[in-house]
Structure formats: structure tokens, C-alpha cells
């Protein structure tokens, strides 16, 4: 019996060594995670996923992070196969998967895109210069407003929020489409009166703008938020507590959407399962990447997920007893 036990242990060690040797001999698979602008929140979040998965020996993976124009651009990267994973807003994911909006996706549904997990809420920040006198979204009529980059999710949120306030793009003094960092520069220089930023609470780019002392946050309010939710069901109402940003003395109510991680449907089930497992097995490391990352837990992982789950992600959450 002793000889049998020893033999079994030795056999197990040999098998484990053989598996380790086999993994070491295999080239690491390279996957790409499409993020967003380098000064946004997607980039450090994607960086955390990259580090966690690249360090997981069982994956034998090297994950690279690519900057992009944001949610709409990331959908296109998934569609073309240029990205394996991507971060994007849940509303854009829904519109693209169903081929209904915005213009780039109408009649052209992106069916090779599936969900992995939701990450954190993204709040629609409306920032206006004190000199502009803007106190509400309706006050943006006749003003110069930065709406985000062309085709970005921020642009869509801005136009939708303006719409429920009865303000069309043509009602603006000028509709400026620039990056977040350029919008901040133009706010400080007085070249625009207001700007939209759909981004996590406490975002450095918004903190930079508010830190100038020349601008403030515009509260959207619950009534307008509810009107937006009624027309666009993927919105929720979020709060920016007082002192989220320097000089912000009052709580600000504003709409929010969810940032989600999606994947190409063609990725192997085992790969997506292990990527998902690696992230949730290393939540403290993930949470350290950015304040917004702390929102992710097993309990929040499927909040607002508008897509069918990848079989690998679905398997992981079923094992954890998490359902939609």
C-alpha cells in the first residue's frame, strides 16, 4: 500500500511537471484589449486586466492594451477582429448588437460581440465655465459646447441629454468635437462654454478642469434623469457626492451608464473563463488600478449587461451562483 501511495504521488508530480513544461514550451497567446483615450479611465482599467491575465501562469497569455477613440471605435475593433476584448458603455453595446443606433450600426448589427462583465458606472459630467452663466442643460442654447470626439459614446450621451431638454445640436452656438484633454484646454482658455465628459466619478481629466477654478459642474436633476431613462432604458441616475472634486461643495445628480467588458464571440470558452476567473481571483489588484475599479464585485458584475454572455464568462458566473 505504501509503495502504491508513493507511486501515485510521484506520478502526480511527474504529470504536473510535464504540464508545466508543456505550457512553458508553448508560445504565449497574444490578445488585444481595446481601451479608450490614455487620459480616460478605460486605459488604466484595461491595464489592470492586462497585468492580471499576463501574470496568470495557467493562461500563458500576453494581453496588450490599445488606446482608441472610445466605445464606438471599440465596437468596430471587435467587429473587424482587431481587438479580442474591449471596454465600452452598455448603451453603445446594446445599440451595436441590435443594429439600431448610432448611425454606424443602423442595419449593421455587430453579432460577434458578447459580454464578459460590467465594471463600473460612468456618469455624464456636464461642466460649464462660470463666465458662461450656464446653470442647467437648457442654458446651453446658443453656447459653444464640446460634445466629445466624433462617434464617441460621450457624443451620443451629450446629444441625448440635450434632446430631453429640448435642445437640438442646431440650437448650440457651436458644437465642438474634441478629445477630453482638448476640451479641458478649451474650457480653461474660454474657447468653449461647456463640455460633456462621460467618465467615472473622480476622473483626473474632470479634476483638472475644475481645479482651474474657472468651471463648475452642472446638475442635471432627477426629473430630467428619469425622462432620459424612459426614452433610453440603459441609463440610470447617479450621484457625485460633495467634494468628489476640489471646490465641489454640493452633491450633483446626473445620468449614468455602465462600463462593460466585452469579447469576440469566437474566443475559446476556456480562455474567457480563465480571464474572468483571473480578474475575480485578484480583485484587490484590480481595485488598485483606479477608484472606479473598486465598484466591481461578484454582485455587481452583471448589472446593466445588455449582451448575451460569452460561454466562458457564463460558466464562471454559474459556478459562483450569479445570475442575471
Question: How is this fold's topology laid out?
Answer:
Blueprint: H1 2-25, E1 29-34, H2 42-55, E2 61-66, H3 71-80, E3 85-89, H4 90-98, E4 113-129, E5 144-146, H5 153-164, E6 174-176, H6 180-189, E7 194-199, H7 204-211, E8 215-217, H8 222-231, E9 236-240, E10 252-264, H9 269-281, H10 283-287, H11 311-319
Parallel strand pairs: 1-2, 1-3, 5-6, 5-7
Antiparallel strand pairs: 3-10, 4-7, 4-8, 4-10, 9-10
Query: What's the structural domain tally?
Result: 2
Low-confidence stretches: 1-24
CATH topology call of the largest domain = D-Maltodextrin-Binding Protein, domain 2
Termini separation:
50 Å
Fraction of residues in H or I helices:
25-40%
Give a count of the beta strands, DSSP E runs of length 2 or more.
Answer: 10
> What structural class do helix, strand and pairing data support?
alpha/beta
H/E topology pattern = HEHEHEHEEHEHEHEHEEHHH
